[in-house]
Structures are given as C-alpha cells and as structure tokens.
Amino acid sequence: MQMPEPSAGILARKAEIVAGLRDRLPADAVISDPAETRAYECDALTAYKCPPLAVVLPASTEEVAAVLAYCHAERVPVVPRGSGTSLAGGALPTADSVILGVARLNDVIETDYPNRIIRVQSGRTNLSVTGAVEADGFFYAPDPSSQLACAIAGNIAMNSGGAHCLKYGVTTNNLLGVTMVTMEGEVIELGGAHLDAPGYDLLGLICGSEGQLGVVTEATLRIIHKPQGARPILMGFDSNEVAGACVSDIIRAGVLPVAIEFMDRPCIRACEAFAKAGYPDVEALLIVEVEGAEAEIAEQLSKITEIARRHNPVELRESRSETESALIWKGRKAAFGAMGQINDYMCLDGTIPVTELPRVLGRIGELSKEYGLDVANVFHAGDGNMHPLILFDANADGQLETCERLGAEILKLCVEVGGCLTGEHGVGVEKRDLMMTQYSADDLEAQLAVKDVFDPRWLLNAAKVFPLDATANRRSAA
Amino acid sequence: MRPGSEAELADCVAGLTGPVAVRCGATRAPDAGDLPVLSAAGLSGITLYEPGALTLVAGAGTPMAEIEETLSAEGQMLAFEPMDHRHLTGRDGVPTIGGAVAVNASGPRRIQAGALRDSLLGVRFVDGQGRVIKNGGRVMKNVTGYDLVKLMAGSHGTLGVLSEVAIKVLPAPDARAVLLFNGLTDAEAVEALCAAMGSPFDVTGAAHLPAGVDGDPVTMIRIEGFEGSVALRAKALAAHLVRFGTPEVERDMGRTAAGWAFVRDLKGFTQADAAVWKISVRPSDGPKVGAALRAAQPDVGIVYDWSGGLVWAEWPDTGDLRVHLAGIPGHATLVRAGRGATGAVPRFAPEPAPVARLSEGLRAKFDPRGLFNPGLMTAHV
Ligand SMILES: Cc1cc2nc3c(=O)[nH]c(=O)nc-3n(C[C@H](O)[C@H](O)[C@H](O)COP(=O)(O)OP(=O)(O)OC[C@H]3O[C@@H](n4cnc5c(N)ncnc54)[C@H](O)[C@@H]3O)c2cc1C
C-alpha cells in the first residue's frame, strides 16, 4: 500500500505550525511530542501506521473552525478522526498531516421525544447515544459491532451499518442534520429536526464521504421507541445454496426480520470452539431475529418456521427464553474474537445481491483453495453484506500479501455479480486501488468534482477513497 | 427531443447548444415555458426485478403504474408511497419513476419507511457534458465512494438527466388499521400523532386534516403488517392514546387505501387558482405554522402529514408565504404557483451563503453549460 510522499516543506515547518495551532487552542489540546502522537498512528487497520505531524483535540465547533481556517491558509493537510476504529484505514495519518480528533466533543445537546430526535456532538460514542435515551424507552438504531468505541463522527463519515439495519436502515437513513466545518473554516448547518432538504441533499452527500468534505461537529439523529420484545431462531442447513434460498424465501414471503445472520461451516466451528454456544455442526447456519409483542413474535416466527421446513433444515431451534436467545447470539457475536484466537485475519465487506449468495460462496471456497488460505464467512444475509474473514499468519513471510491478493479477488467477484466493494466499512486506503473495478473514469470524475467543490485545495483526508494516480494532479496543484 | 436509449440521450445532451427543460412524465415539474423539452420518457421499462432481493431496476421513463402493478403482482410495494402530483398540477401526463426520483416524491409512509432517497439504491444519469455516470448500484448496502444517489434524488433535473434507477422495495402489508380521531384541534392532533410515533407500535402514517372529507377535523394514524399483529397493535395504540378520545378503527383495505391517497395527493385542496406550498418543520412546530398562516390568510387550506412535520398549505395569495414563518426553523417550497404569480417568489427556500456556494459549485461541475432546468433550484429566478 502506497501513501503520498509527505511534503518536505510542511515537515520542515513543524515548529511553526504547532505554534500556530497553540495560538488557537488551549494548551492541552495540541499534541506534538512524537511519543504522544504515536497513539494516533493508525486506526483498526493496524497493518498500516504513520505518526502525524501533530494532533489537535478541539472542544467546540469554533475551535474546529479556527484550526481548519489556519490549516487551510497554511496549506497543511488535515485528517479527521473519531475513535479510530475504522477497518479501512480511513483515519490513517500522513506524516505531514494534522489529526483533528473530535473525542472531546461528546455532549448531548438536546433530546426531544415527541419529535424523536437527539442532537449530540459528533465525538460521542454510538452506544452512549442510546445510553442517553434508553431509560426512557428509546434507542438509536444503527448498531455497528464496534458501538462501544466508535464515534457518531466516524459513523457519519463511513455511513456505518449494523446487525439491525435490515429493518432500520444504516446511518444515512437515521441522520437528520449536521453542523459541519468546511476545510476553509466555514461553519454550515445542513438539515435539522425537520425532514428533507430545502435544496440539494447535501446531508446525504456528506454521509459516507469519509472525512473528505468537511469536519462534522454536531449531529441530529433519529431515535425510536424500543420494540416490546425480540426473539431469534436458529436454523442449520446442509448446504449454502439451501440456506441462501431460505433467506430469499423469507424475504419474499413478506416477513421483514430485524436481522438475518449467516455463518458457514468454518465460521461455525471456530465460534463453537470459542464460545460453546451449542451450535450444530452444519454447512450453513442462519440466525433470524424478529421483534414485537409476544403474539407478533409468535406470528412471524411461525411463518418463518414454515418456510424453513420446506428447505429441510438439519436443525431448527426457536428460543424459548432470554437465556436461550443469548446463547443463540453468543456464537455469532464472538465470531471476530474467535477468529482472532485462531489466527490473524482480514475482514472484507463486499455486498452482493442476495440471490447471488450460493454462487459467491462457492467461488470464495475455490479461491480459498487456490490461494491456500482459509476463509470463514459470517455476514448480514438479509441485505447481502458479506464479511469473508481471510485467515493468515502475519509473521509468515509473504502471507499478508497473499491475503491481500485473495481479498482483492473476492471483492472483484462481488462487483462482478452486481455488488460493490464495501457495504459499511468504507474505502479508506484499503480498497482505494480497487475503485476502478467498480467505477469508470467518468464515474470517478463526477465524485472527484464533488471534492473539488467542498475542498478545492484537496487538504482534507486527501489520500483516501480514490486511487492515488487519479488524484495526483489535484493534490499537487493544491 | 425524446431519445430512446441512454446512448442517444448522451449524444443528445452533448449536442445541445442551449438550455432545455428536463422532463419525464411532466406531471410534477412547473411549465417548461419557452424552453425546448428534453424528455427521458422514452427510456422506459423494468430491466430487473428480484422479489427475493427486494430490488427493482427501471428506465427513468417507466410509468409509475407499470412499476406499481409489477410489484403488486408479487405482493410488494414502493416503500415511500409516492404522491401523484396530477391533482395538484392539473396535468394529464403519465407519472414516471424518473420524475418521482427527481423530486424525491415521498408520501405519508415517509415518516416510518424513509423518503424516496432512502429507497434509492443506484442511479445512472447523463451529466451536462454528455457523459454517462453511474453511482450506487443495486445492492442494499453500499458505501463505495460518494453517495451521488442522494444528491440526484430531489435535484429536480438540474444536475443531470436520469436514465435508470435502482430501487429497494418492500413487502406490501397483508392488513391495515387506521385509527381515526374526530374533532381534535391542530395542537391536540399533532400531540396525538407525536405520541403515536413515539410508541413501540410501528406507526406507518400520521396525518391530520383540519378539514377532512366531510369538512370536520380528522386525525389519522395507520398501522400495517400481518393480520394478528395489526389487530393487536391497533388495540394497544388506542389505549396508549386514550387521552385524545376513543378512535374509530377502520380496517377495510380499499377504504383505508383511498383515505391515505386523499391525504397523499391533497385531494382536499380544490382551489385551482391558489398556490400550494410544502413546509417542512420539526413536527411539534406544525401547529405554529398552521396558526401563523391562518392569522395571515384566513382562507388558507392546511394538511398535516409526517406527524406534523410536513405542512401543506393551499395559499390563495401570490405573495411569499415564508415571510409569515419567521422564527420557525425549517423551510418552505412553492410546489404550485397560484394564478397571477409573477415568478418573483423563489420556488426553493433561499440558502445561506456558504451552502448556496456549495450548491452553485455542484451545478457548475455537473452542468457547466447551464443547460438543465436553468434557474429552477436557484433562489433568484
Ligand atoms: C471490532 C470492530 C467491529 C466493527 N463493526 C462494524 C459494523 O458492524 N458495522 C460497521 O459499519 N462498521 C464496523 N466497524 C468499523 C468502524 O467501527 C466504523 O467504520 C466506525 O464508524 C468508525 O468510527 P470511528 O469513530 O472509530 O471513526 P475513525 O476510525 O476515527 O474514522 C473513520 C473515518 O471517519 C472520518 N471522520 C472521523 N471523524 C470525523 C469528523 N468529525 N468529520 C468528518 N469525518 C470524520 C475519518 O477521517 C475516517 O475517514 C467495526 C470496527 C471494529 C474494529
């Protein structure tokens, strides 16, 4: 993976730039000591590391605006950062960049139940948004597995999803407004407690723009009342094809579960060994969860069971208690931990049309043999968002590279069958160089044009999302 | 100009020498005036429909009716319940999916299932330089690159001419219950709507007509799903809202569908000469909007949808309604100009300077020659 050469001019001016930042922020909000900036050298894609020039931790929108105006005037690159849990290298610094972390912006500004909104500062963690309203029966729906740590800022930048988005949508469907600071230091308000944009849907454009169009400091989010109850059912099948067909039939029948999770045999075995959830040793496992009052749950589960039976399941286990529900979810929730125990792993995030599941899983199996690395699959089947986990040994010579090549092949396969490179983790640096497999030069040019409008000098997180050679002229002209 | 394929459309745009009115079914947009019309209505037809994946792909010119029939044959529907604008605009054209996308047409179910933009998975369009651009795709989760899909939804044909769209569809409900409260004031009604939306009963429509079909106020709250679940939730919701009275519960599928179409298409607005405004506010501010407008113009007709957050006003006045709403956060769009309007009132709410600069910047990039619906989305006509 390549990153652009840092600007020698900026590196040479470090002392002056740090002084400039200190002039605009409280003393403890600027970090420049290399021993301390190292804490910001990577995000959750830890294979790539680079300490930044400096780190700033502003505590208000005004401070963010002051930092950005200064960096813009001085042509210093800026990389926004939430909690640093990106799996795509979205928050990876360059040596000549200032990391702008929003961790100190974590207040709740307003909760309004009649209008079902909460307004928070963007550094607040995902789970603590729900934490602020759950005593009153409400929750914030998008629930990435990293929700204990990740910030709303990062969720907005990546348009993050979660296990429950089949029913409730992803971040962009639950975001009503933001306060954002442009690279020039201008504060703008988009959306708010009302629905729909007055002009262009700039809010929709900001969400998922990976910190390249502005720094989000506040957000208005949709909160909803918790359902009365929820219950999962576990089904085992003796082939991926049959499990895939069952998913399709459930959706076709008009049942819209909150979650349909899929695990294949390698994943089931690893999870079972790790979590002892009592999973059957089958080829494919589905966990389907439905919500509502007791009678509604029963109504939906009876429809789902009826459909599943037509596919001759090897196992069909409806939860009858809280304990059994927890056990059904236990293995699934431990999937990443279980994999981590066995080996190093790389988590992919391509999305495919649900109807292509069997074919894609079959082909992934072949590729896995070809490259000599095991792949376990665990994913959100209802919406086709796959998470193939490629197992490798980082200490073995060349395995990381083999793993990356296999990963690229799998992602190309996703695009080939009508899907995309990333369903929820973002492009970052990780999938940057695969963008041309999904987009034509004109498609990309239209996206680059958007960046030109929001950040004409290409200073904000500029080495991400697009292939470096596609942005080289723009970055050097800046 | 009515190209029959995307390639022809691209050639057509590349060859343009001056501005055009971009249209599909032309049932939603204002009059083209003197501009030549570039119609995408010829790009018609469903190219992919996978009920098991909840996805449909169609040419921009595909009639809404064709899409709705196709979905309904599989027990599915469009989640966003798009408005049919013909009652408002008085046009007799054929509403198309491209037109719906261009105006982000979203009806009552928007409050629960999201706007059209939330169901839109992918677009193909021709930009102002005649380039074919695609963005998004046909899968439900996609964060690969910037989301130009959202940008195109509701851009009223000013950034490009849509050629094809991919849409996420939903299962159509088996059963429906509508709770009807009679005689509530606007303030009481919106309080009831907000209480319903804040309940766990998954309400899919929340509207208030100060003058319903028979002229009296009626508040409508909709629940949909499987039969058993609907019956259960309707009962629980009525109990939850008991402080607003005892509702009538309408269960007939045909009658409830007609009732919501009445709200969605603003059939209660019958003053053909009046302007029609769409006002978007925080739901609990809805009644303030109603009160302010009535104080300024006693003959105003009002409909509240989206729990009070969408206020439709039938406004027998050619002046700018926005002057009466100062201090209420949100925005107002002129959907239909009244008779005698001079065009001096901007259709879209003027944007604050830094936002306007971004909008203008985007227009300059996507349509550098200023070809597409010039002036439509700018504050200054
Ligand atoms: C164990 C684990 C499980 C995960 N599970 C999921 C999952 O289920 N679903 C899912 O979608 N993701 C998941 N992720 C990925 C990750 O948690 C999400 O992408 C998350 O939204 C990142 O948030 P963050 O605050 O950590 O952002 P960071 O990693 O700090 O940054 C992410 C991106 O946001 C930008 N950014 C940060 N702050 C701002 C700001 N204020 N303004 C503008 N841009 C900004 C950054 O520049 C960067 O491009 C998981 C990660 C881990 C480690």
From TrEMBL, chain A:
Keyword hit for Protein transport: no
Pfam families reported for this sequence: FAD-oxidase_C (PF02913), FAD_binding_4 (PF01565)
GO molecular function annotation: FAD binding; oxidoreductase activity
FAD-binding PCMH-type domain span: 48-226
Lineage top rank: taxon: Bacteria
Cofactor: FAD
UniProt keyword terms in alphabetical order: FAD, Flavoprotein, Oxidoreductase
The protein's name: FAD-binding protein
Entries under PANTHER family matching the protein: GLYCOLATE OXIDASE SUBUNIT GLCD
Record bears the keyword Oxidoreductase: yes
UniProtKB/TrEMBL annotation, chain B:
UniProt entry tagged with the keyword Flavoprotein: yes
PROSITE patterns hit by this protein: FAD_PCMH
InterPro entries found in the cross-reference section: FAD-bd_PCMH (IPR016166), FAD-bd_PCMH-like_sf (IPR036318), FAD-bd_PCMH_sub2 (IPR016169), FAD-linked_Oxase-like_C (IPR016164), Oxid_FAD_bind_N (IPR006094)
Domain FAD-binding PCMH-type: 1-172
Keywords, ordered alphabetically: FAD, Flavoprotein
Pfam families according to UniProt: FAD_binding_4
Highest taxon above the source species: Bacteria
GO terms, molecular function: catalytic activity; FAD binding
Identification of the protein by name: FAD-binding protein
Organism: Oceanomicrobium pacificus
